[in-house]
Amino acid sequence: MRMTIRVAVIGAAGRMGSEVCRAVEAAGDLELAGRYDVGDDLGDLAGAQVAVDFTVPDATLGNVLHAVERGVHAVVGTTGWSDERLAAVGDALGGSPATGVLIAPNFALGAVLTMKFAAEAARFYESAEVVELHHPDKVDAPSGTAVRTAQLMAEARRAAGLPEAPDATTSSLPGARGADVEGVPVHAVRLRGLVAHEEVLLGSVGETLTIRHDSFDRVSFMPGVLIGVRNVVGHPGLTVGLEHFLDL
Ligand SMILES: NC(=O)C1=CN([C@@H]2O[C@H](COP(=O)(O)OP(=O)(O)OC[C@H]3O[C@@H](n4cnc5c(N)ncnc54)[C@H](O)[C@@H]3O)[C@@H](O)[C@H]2O)C=CC1
Ligand SMILES: O=C(O)C1=N[C@H](C(=O)O)C[C@H](O)C1
């Protein structure tokens, strides 16, 4: 029989945090130990074994370090992670080697698969671009998922020795060709009515391939978050990306 895992949620009043609280409460093998939001003292995180963080890029590193210093595992969905910030988590884990931290730009299983398929396909096409589409209350652009997708595609293109994608543009309005993520243009749409969507566009002479994922509801992220919570306790150290807990 599986032991009950005690979970604290940071950012609990937010769109994702409140959904995570409901998912944890509904899971028979998990117990919601504490809910924290802006201004709350995290203290001992209510004695939780795992802290789940869905807050804001400026707060998430501090929250993760707070957890790691107390030996509390962390599952993090907040975006905005740089190599320097990831290194700071790695350093902290050096002082707490039994603790695990999972940081994932997207917990929707279809989004994880989209990243994998995009990386797989990227080397076969001359042109590659990413379009992400989100609700207008999102504070960061482009999305963490789109940045990660573009990085994986760029890595695959480099490894295959592909040249820069063709683009004859010599005159444009600022932003018209999107953000340049390692040579892959990433375009961000903000539209009321949307939740979280991504399109990967690949093209060669005479054909295109489109890979699209849609999260129509934030419940779509919950199976992945719960997989993270259940697995992070057995995976000490830093794991970036849910794919590592999915045998992908
Ligand atoms: N990895 C994934 O699958 C997903 C990641 N996200 C990311 O999660 C983050 C949160 O997204 P939403 O829930 O939509 O935002 P939100 O704005 O609805 O919620 C954020 C919550 O964090 C709280 N907060 C801010 N600073 C805090 C602090 N220092 N301590 C504790 N709480 C604090 C806010 O008061 C708010 O309640 C964003 O970075 C978003 O991109 C969102 C959806 C899925
Ligand atoms: O803010 C959101 O909503 C989302 N954020 C994540 C991201 O930036 O990639 C994941 C998903 O796209 C939803």
UniProtKB/TrEMBL annotation:
NADP(+) binds at R35. Its EC number is 1.17.1.8. The keyword Metal-binding does not apply. It is an enzyme of class 1 (oxidoreductase). Residues 5-107 form the Dihydrodipicolinate reductase N-terminal domain. It is found in: Cytoplasm. Homotetramer. HAMAP family: DapB. This is 4-hydroxy-tetrahydrodipicolinate reductase. It comes from Phytoactinopolyspora mesophila. The lineage of its organism: Bacteria, Bacillati, Actinomycetota, Actinomycetes, Jiangellales.
